């Protein structure tokens, strides 16, 4: 297990001349509104702790004003904390000197904002390579790297155009390309796709997910849109009034929203769409036999079990044997299709309705990890639709 990329511990930010007074009130349980009324100090972030793991997309979600932007500015130290600390790769960001910070921001962190000025008189290529230019990379090298990322985001044919010749969505891709070109170990994206219309936004989410498949980066992504968070987040942190109310995987949050504030984000969203075979599977519902024992299947198929999956030594699915086979000298193994752990609910439903048997679920290596069947899937869908919609 890697050390976390980012560790945030007891982080607080109070905007105003007397943060200590506000911090004392908060420690005694006062809310952001009470602090503002009594002291005039604005609570940006209060007592927030979490880790961001290497290679994950960590989404910060919450209503406008809940402290998302302040929190990520504390992470890259554009804002100084009133209390608490931030570690990046185990280094305390608050203790870093100016020069170290500048180097950190140039080399290790990239920011993508909702709207950031592309330089209108520079080409797309020159805009995309700007971060590298600031970092002092030679012209030839930076243009080569910028071209590479323009290809990745589908903008290579537009490299020598000016930003004004591109649509809004394409301009946003230039921003993404600029951030990617420096190949940062941490990308920070603040509402990067929020200004785009829903179609373009989904397109950018797909670009990001595809890039993530090719090259896993650690990304902190701010969004006020739960559907976006569910689509792209490996984990989601939900903020309210400067506090962190819940951190978890999309599935954790769908299954167990911490409170009504979190639940309200689900209004009008069919959360079952975000469940995968891995979320829906059961373990231990279907007996397992090894290839060698498949002939002695009677011993395994006691009680109610009508069939068993047959696994090889690497836990790969070989097929299945049924109770009918008992008594036969050599019960024949029959083939069965398996479902990938990350398959969507739609895929799972289409497969299980067509199968009288439970289907095995396999991980990335094709190893058995559980099973899905009609009755169980139906229950899971009804539960998630019933409670949120
Ligand atoms: N520079 C600042 N000075 C005073 N208050 C600020 C400043 N920046 C943010 N705030 C306040 O901090 C709170 C959190 O803001 P922000 O982090 O921008 O929220 P979000 O990004 O979730 O919309 C808000 O109440 C906001 O008004
Ligand atoms: Mg913001």
UniProtKB/TrEMBL annotation:
EC number: 7.6.2.9
GO BP term, example: response to osmotic stress
InterPro entries: AAA+_ATPase, ABC_osmolyte_uptake_ATP-bind, ABC_transporter-like_ATP-bd, ABC_transporter-like_CS, CBS_dom, CBS_dom_sf, Gly-betaine_transp_ATP-bd, P-loop_NTPase
Catalyzed reactions: a quaternary ammonium(out) + ATP + H2O = a quaternary ammonium(in) + ADP + phosphate + H(+)
Main location: membrane
Residue ranges of every copy of the CBS domain listed in the record: 332-387
Pfam families linked to this entry: ABC_tran (PF00005), CBS (PF00571)
Domain ABC transporter: 30-266
UniProt xrefs under SUPFAM superfamilies: CBS-domain pair, P-loop containing nucleoside triphosphate hydrolases
Xref: PROSITE patterns: ABC_TRANSPORTER_1 (PS00211), ABC_TRANSPORTER_2 (PS50893), CBS (PS51371)
A GO MF label: ABC-type quaternary ammonium compound transporting activity
Keyword tags: Amino-acid transport, ATP-binding, CBS domain, Cell inner membrane, Cell membrane, Membrane, Nucleotide-binding, Transport
Similarity comment: Belongs to the ABC transporter superfamily.
Name used for this protein in its record: Quaternary amine transport ATP-binding protein
Species this protein is from: Paraburkholderia lacunae
Lineage: Bacteria, Pseudomonadati, Pseudomonadota, Betaproteobacteria, Burkholderiales
